[in-house]
Amino acid sequence: MEAADGEEQHFAPPPIGDMNELLNPGQEENIQGQMEEFLGPHSEYNEEEEEKKYYRRKRLGVIKNVLAASFGAMIVYSVYVGLLQMQLILHYDTTYREVKYSNLGLEDIDRKMLMGINVTPIVGLLYTAVLIRFLGTKWMMFLASGIYALFVSTNYWERYYTLVPSAIAIGVAIVPFWASLGNYITRMAQLYYEYVNYEKEHVQEQKKLPKGACHSYIIVFHSIFNIIFHLSFVFAEFPMCLVLNRYLHDDKHTLYNVKFCGAKVSGVIPGFNTTVLTSLPRSMLLIQVESVLMGFAFLSMIIFLVLCGAAHRPTEEIDLRSIGWGNIFQLPFKHLRDYRLRLLCPFFIYSGFEILFAITGFSLTYGVCILGLKNLWLLVVVYGLSCSVFSSLSLLILRFPRWVCLMSGAVVHFILLVVLMAFSVQRKENQTYSEYMGPLLVITALWGLGSALNKTGLSTVIGMLYAEEKERLDFVYTIYRWWEAIAIFIVYLWSNMPMRAKLAILLATLLVASYCYWLMERRLAKDLRPRLPRIPRPRHKEEKGPPSQKPHFSSPLYFRGYFWGVFGRVQPAAALFSTTKLCPSGACFSGV
Q1: Within the chain, how many helices (H) and strands (E) appear?
Q2: Alpha-carbon distance 210 to 33, whole Å?
Q3: Predicted confidence (pLDDT) at residue 439 exceeds the cutoff of 80
Q4: Looking at per-residue confidence, does 8 or 74 come out higher?
């Protein structure tokens, strides 16, 4: 017994399962209960409330996108207009050209630069739709803002090989930039409608929207965009008002040889003095101004990049590109078959006429010629504020027919054009013309009223006409901005014509545009169906069989299938050889 007690006794350990059952017999039931409690529906979780919160965040994101696109466009255009205005005034002065760039020929460079900006957009219809589909709407806006920033950067080193190529690049980007903006704002209105009515069946299945469903959102969003964007004319005058004005001669010097102003003038301002600067601005001051403008140009790029969301879902982007690049190239031309666009073309042309006439024709031939160059900033600021404030009047379309906006602007401009044809001033020595300040500012504000109704009305009407056709929006806005660019090019060509001839062209275009728009609304009231081009279905690359069944790349069948897939239609080729003994099913040419 002692020996037995002294020996070490070894016991086999019990099974782990038995030990667990002995130690915690109810642990398994507790774990199952905890899992059921964790995976089961929570008493505090409300699926419907969470869904509402999710789509509320989506709607706020859409509003953020609209505001970001509006402020980004406003900053880009204010930087571009402000820099271009300051640059052209400095280069116009003969003393500045001779002292700083005596052998460079800045005047000739300016002419070629303006030609690049105004002539290049003529070919915009050829590539705009392809660029928008290839890059996407958001990235097209970002790239275009980068080109505007490039134009600002070239002014640090003013040479022919910097200014002219950057001006041509801006001309290339003008039509895609504005077409992308119009497409983006309208697309945000469609998305906002989908996020408000997310419970409806046609939204959940991503079907075509009902007719007129998102019209109210289109009206509101385009009004917001134009209210913010037209402030660009106000901020564009900051370099002129804060920096350049102190270096300008008074009107007695600059307008000494000017005899007539207004309707009797041929050209811009005949007799305007070629020395407009009392002293030359310091180079460091100009570099500081350009650096500030460059900073704002970069800010607009960051706004487009960071704050603007995508206009389409990833699957929609793929579908938009998958219809074929040849079809994308042709569809803008084919959309001109639509009688609605054809009848709106005169209004597109007038829209380009009137905006450039307000900035160059009226502001210079009437404003600067009578009041002097120092008051140019005041006229442009009043015009910009007027456009911004009166863009809110387009919200009246929510309660009145859509033709009210466009026709009201046409009536205002018709009256002003008749007044301007009769308004002329003969300048005399030692006489002040400050009494014309009030009437000119009133005319400027009223012209801004007509421009606001015209711009906002046109973009809203296009969005309403094609609200249910989201795959056509980029083509439609491309046509709109292209015709506007054509009109701007015509205004660039007529700079030396008599003012009354310019006003007569404007008046005739306005009357034709109003008649064509009335004709379009009449046809729509009769429910005349427009002729829309068919958009092909997206063509996605699909696997036709397991990889083991496909021929190896060294096989002759592989190269035959590749040849017919690239240079011809597969189905006709397969059908042609389907009766032969060599390829009875046409498989040789289908790549299988």
Answers
A1: 27, 2
A2: 49
A3: yes
A4: 74
- Distance, in Å, from the CA atom of 71 to the CA atom of 369, rounded to the nearest integer, reads 33
Residue (of 510, 225, 233) closest to 391 by Cα position: 225
CATH superfamily, region 51-526 = MFS general substrate transporter like domains (1.20.1250.20)
What string of DSSP letters covers 35-99? HHHHHSPPSS--HHHHHHHHHHHHHHHHHHHHHHHHHHHHHHHHHHHHHHHHHHHHHH-HHHHHH
Query: What is the band of 556 on the pLDDT scale with cuts at 50, 70, 90?
Result: very low
* pTM of the model as a whole: 0.82
pLDDT in tens, 385-435: 999 999 999 998 889 998 999 999 999 999 999 999 999 888 887 777 888
Domain parsing of the chain, residue ranges: 51-526
- Largest interatomic CA distance in the chain: 143
pLDDT band for 43, please (50, 70, 90 cuts): low
CA–CA distances in Å: residue 560 to residues 136, 501, 547, 582, 584? 35, 65, 18, 13, 15
Task: Quote the CA–CA distance of 63 and 201 in Å, as a whole number.
Answer: 24
Alpha-carbon distance of 128 to 199, in angstroms, equals 36
For 126, other C-beta atoms within 10 Å of its C-beta total 13
